[in-house]
Design brief:
The protein has helices at 41-56, 95-102, 113-124, 183-187, 189-198, 211-219, 223-247, 263-276, 296-314, and strands at 5-11, 15-22, 27-34, 64-71, 75-76, 81-82, 108-112, 133-138, 142-148, 151-152, 251-255, 286-289. It is an alpha/beta fold. The strands form 3 sheets. It has a 5-stranded mixed β-sheet. Strand 8 (133-138) and strand 9 (142-148) form a beta hairpin.
Length: 315
């Protein structure tokens, strides 16, 4: 029997996606359900089991050697539990055990969603060929992950590289995480929009107050919209520079909805990086948009499962 595929789950506050993925990162079978995020934990788990049920029903399932999960966090890979901020019914939920039961004992590898996207970008995307990289997701929140020495570096609990909660403004706004002036509190989409509105930006006739609408205004030169993106870029640059100074990354890859703003974000980001990444060993740091798109979480979870399978084969 060939065991040349892995299964993958990408679990977020909006959707639960599953796939069977080959060793080249190609998705061969996929399944998806909306996340019943405001329901109780067992209802959420049932949606996961429905996705897994569609995968196990595929004739290709018998070729799956392991299963990788990329989940919204915090996750605790050492305990096999998840407590996603945007799925309140799951607190210290034993996801690894429950998934293993649903797939009859297949090996299961759990990582945070930021780490999963990093794995995907390093394997198939913008960080390919880089041994030391930071990959970030800038959307409703700000997450990330690290590649160090050519290897994914999830850390003991699967949360290493969570750049959204580096403090870059010591006397800044209180962050829901309990700290102050976090990157996420300044650079996430909702906070870009909030700051623009507080400073007098007004949406168009459609009433859209999203970060994408602020980006559209910035593109045509609205000074308040431009300033809100510049402030976000400054926070991201400070966080990226701090990370590069600590662990010597040579590329920062940025994805997520806010990165879709394009040069409205990347131009001031590259400029601000010059102000913060000043030491000789971080001056050549590149910044690039992510390439993997909406399948990044699945492909990254598959990469983690493949890495686990490879580790097991060498023991």
């Amino acid at each position: 029997m060939h065991t040349d595929l892995v299964a993958a789950l990408d679990i977020g506050g909006t959707k639960i996606a599953g796939a069977l993925v080959d060793g080249h990162g190609q998705i061969l079978v996929r399944s998806q359900r909306p996340t019943p995020a405001q329901r109780d934990g067992e209802t959420v788990m049932r949606a996961v089991e429905e996705v897994l049920g569609e995968l196990t029903a595929s004739p290709l399932w018998e070729r799956a050697a392991a299963l990788g999960i990329g989940s919204a966090g915090p996750v605790d890979a050492s305990a096999g539990t998840v407590s996603p901020v945007n799925v309140p019914g799951w607190r210290d939920f034993p996801l690894v055990r429950r998934v293993r039961e649903a797939v009859c004992g297949l090996p299961v590898e759990l990582i945070g969603d930021g780490v999963a996207i990093t794995a995907a970008e390093h394997w198939q995307g913008a960080a390919r060929g880089h041994d030391n990289a930071l990959c970030m997701v800038v959307s409703t929140g700000v997450g990330g992950g690290l590649v160090l020495g050519g290897q994914l570096h999830p850390g003991p609990t699967g949360n290493a590289g969570h750049i959204g909660h580096i403090s870059v403004d010591l006397d800044g706004d209180a962050c829901p995480c309990g700290s102050r002036g976090c990157v996420e509190r300044i650079a996430s989409g909702p906070n870009i929009a909030r700051r623009a509105l507080e400073n007098g930006w007004r949406p168009g006739p459609d009433g859209d107050t999203s970060a994408a609408a602020v980006a559209a205004s910035a593109r045509v030169g609205d000074p308040v919209a431009v300033a809100s993106f510049q402030r976000a870029a400054q926070a991201l640059a400070a966080g990226i520079a701090a990370t590069a100074t600590l662990v010597e990354i040579d590329i920062a890859v940025i994805g997520g909805g806010v990165a879709k703003a394009g040069e409205v974000l990347f131009t001031p980001l590259r400029k601000a990086l010059g102000d913060y990444a000043t030491l000789s060993f971080v001056q050549r740091l590149a910044v690039a948009p992510a390439q993997m798109g909406t399948d990044a979480g699945l492909v990254g979870a598959a990469a983690a499962a493949l890495a686990r399978r490879a580790d097991a084969a060498t023991v």
